[in-house]
């Protein structure tokens, strides 16, 4: 059994659980935190899936396959081509695809804020409202769609993936 399969499934489950909680959250900060948490789990699931694909094709450095490009380089170095990687690369190259959006939004979560609009006082802790960039600040529906698309791809590719 592929050692990354359980990790991918766990992160997909955690993302789905957080999205369920976000859908019920009334507080906007809590909803945003839950959606961002789900996005992080989805991004981690993607990275683990890249490693899963690499391991399925017997890469010795599967953990190093953390992006579509590194996955492709690993398989190319082994003179292997995989339909799964072709699909992943096509999604990565399309700036409007769910995969590109997940990766861009995940990178944006760790980037320094572009602009601070106003200071809010809430209890003891001061918070700042960040001017949201619609391209990197997904809403609940976005992350739900991306998780569904990822799940569909994983299930389809796992059915056809052959361990080499």
Strand content: 5-15%
* Count of individual beta strands: 2
Shape: globular
Q: Give me the strand/helix succession.
A: HHHHHEEH
Question: What is the number of domains?
Answer: 1
Mean pLDDT across residues: 88
Low-confidence stretches: none
Query: Largest beta sheet: what is the strand line-up?
Result: 1-2
The end-to-end distance, rounded to whole angstroms, is 13 Å
Description of the structure:
- This protein is mainly alpha-helical.
- The chain has helices at residues 5-24, 28-56, 68-77, 83-93, 98-110, 140-160; strands at residues 116-122, 125-130.
- The protein has one domain (5-160).
- The protein has 6 helices and 2 strands; from the N terminus they run H-H-H-H-H-E-E-H.
- Helix 3 (68-77) runs antiparallel to helix 4 (83-93) and helix 5 packs across helix 6.
- The chain is globular and about 50 Å long.
Question: Top keywords for this entry?
Answer:
single chain, 164 residues, mainly alpha, 6 helices
Quick gist of this model?
With 164 residues, the chain is mainly alpha-helical. Helices cover 63% and strands 8% of the residues. It is globular and about 50 Å long.
